[in-house]
Every structure is written in C-alpha cells, then in structure tokens.
C-alpha cells in the first residue's frame, strides 16, 4: 500500500472547502414495562407472595428511561485547505473541525486539526525535501456502557424529576 499526502504546487493558489452535516438516532430500543405495567406486576407479585405492596418502591411515574438517555444526534465536519507555491517552494495548509454528538445525551467528540506540507525543490531539482506538520486537539466525553443496562432495568415508576426533593 502506497500512501501519499496532498501537496502544494508552484501553480496559482487554490482554495478548497468541504462540509458534511449528519444526524444519528436509535432505531430500535428494548421493549420494557411502562410504569403502569410495572405497578400491576408488582401488585400481582405481592399478592402471590403474600407480602405487603408497600415494601415495593412504587411511585407515580411512567418513565421510559431509554427515552431519557437517547437523543437524535447531530454532527458536522468542515475542512478548508489552501495550496500553492512560491518559486521552488510548494506548500499546502489544511484546517479541519469536527463536532459529533453521540446518541447518548452526554456523549460528545470534538476535534480540531491543522496540517502543513512544504516541499522545497533545491539545486535545480536535485534535492527534494518533504516537510509535514500535523497537529490535532481532541475532546471527548463518553457515557459508561452500563447506562444501557440501567435504562432497561431501572424502575419505570420513578419520575425523572422529584418535585418533593430538595433539588426540585
């Protein structure tokens, strides 16, 4: 496999820009009990076991926790480059930016990139030098994989927000 990098030329200055925007969403989620179904199942289990229903942590909520952790995510990527040359000094400068949201609400990934290629030709093209500089800065935040199991096993009778709590 031969990998080549884009380089400038001694021709006129050229500019290039590309952009991509996309969205992602979860198509299939796990089928889980609603809060009402969960309360009914708990009542049946308590009756069957002969225990007091008050021993179960049942509340008034009807929460699908998968709806609470997932979102439609949007992503965008932009790339700009400039190439050209000064006499025997071809160059290419590129800049890139990517911002990706994850389908889990807390997931994010952001990247900035800079690239510079300089390719001087010296001594009547007897010496060719290829200099490349590439830098990137990345920031990411990923949810723990256990969030998926929690979303399908957590009690659906618990509301997302507790109006009686000190935190509102």
Describe the structure.
- The chain has 168 residues and is of the alpha+beta class.
- It is 17% helix and 38% strand.
- The chain contains three helices and seven strands.
- It has helices at residues 35-49, 65-69, 146-153, and strands at residues 14-24, 73-86, 89-101, 108-118, 121-122, 127-128, 131-141.
- The strands form two sheets. It has a five-stranded antiparallel β-sheet, with no helix packed on it. Strands 5-6 form a two-stranded antiparallel ribbon.
- The protein is rod-shaped and about 95 Å long.
| CA-CA gap between termini | 60 Å
Strand order of the largest sheet: 1-2-3-4-7
Low-pLDDT runs: none
What proportion of the residues is helical, as a percent range? Answer: 10-25%
Structural class: alpha+beta
Which term fits the overall shape? rod-shaped
Major sheet summary line: 5 strands, antiparallel
Cα-based radius of gyration, to the nearest Å: 28 Å
**Helix and strand sequence:** EHHEEEEEEH
TL;DR of this structure?
The chain has 168 residues and is an alpha+beta fold. It has helices spanning 35-49, 65-69, 146-153; strands spanning 14-24, 73-86, 89-101, 108-118, 121-122, 127-128, 131-141.
What would the keywords be for this entry?
7 strands; single chain; 5-stranded antiparallel sheet; two-stranded antiparallel ribbon; 17% helix; alpha+beta; 3 helices; 168 residues
Write the layout of secondary structure elements.
Blueprint: E1 14-24, H1 35-49, H2 65-69, E2 73-86, E3 89-101, E4 108-118, E5 121-122, E6 127-128, E7 131-141, H3 146-153
Antiparallel strand pairs: 1-2, 2-3, 3-4, 4-7, 5-6
């Amino acid at each position: 496999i031969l990998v080549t990098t884009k380089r400038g030329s001694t021709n006129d200055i050229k500019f290039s820009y590309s952009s991509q925007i996309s969205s992602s969403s979860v198509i299939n989620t796990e089928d889980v009990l609603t809060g009402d179904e969960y309360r009914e199942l708990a009542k049946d289990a308590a009756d069957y076991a002969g225990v007091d229903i008050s021993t179960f942590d049942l509340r008034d909520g009807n929460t699908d926790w998968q709806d609470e952790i997932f979102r439609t995510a949007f992503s965008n990527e932009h790339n700009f480059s400039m190439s050209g040359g000064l006499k025997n000094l071809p160059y290419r400068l590129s800049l890139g930016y990517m911002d990706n949201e994850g389908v889990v609400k807390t997931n994010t990934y952001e990247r900035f990139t800079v690239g510079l290629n300089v390719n001087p030709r010296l001594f009547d093209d007897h010496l060719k030098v290829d200099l490349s500089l590439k830098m990137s800065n990345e920031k990411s935040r990923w949810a723990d994989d256990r969030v998926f199991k929690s979303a399908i096993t957590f009690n659906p009778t618990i509301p997302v927000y507790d109006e009686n709590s000190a935190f509102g």
